[in-house]
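SECTION: protein entry
WANTED: fold as tokens:
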Amino acid sequence: MAYSDYDLTGSAKTLVEEIRDMIQENPVIGDRKPGSGHEFSGKELSSKTAQLEQELSNEKYASRCKVLHLDHGGIIYNRSGHLLVIPLNGSAAFERTTSTQTDEPLRPCHYLTETRKIRGDDIDVILVALEERD
């Protein structure tokens, strides 16, 4: 199931834009995995992702955000069972499970319930894991 960008609140959209600008203008590279990409980090980015986590959390779900750069796509593991993928930079698509289907374009806010393979070169994404509250 995929959500459109209209499902993000105005505040969430603003935070996504601020995060996009931040990693374009002054990226701070965190953990790097050779050949696959890296996680963005830094105090300012941590502050913005904490605000986005708060904005996307509700009475049923709590969220955790990571901002990643993928060199050549990769596998998006969905350990929580509920994951939002928000593209920031680059052109990306999800690989379809059958060879007869074309790739599924990544929407402005894509909701996943399973692990998926993402295609694209030099793409930046926000991953938001949604975990059920106790």
The longest strand covers residues 116-132. The chain has a mean pLDDT of 88. The chain has one domain: 5-132. The first helix runs from residue 10 to 25.
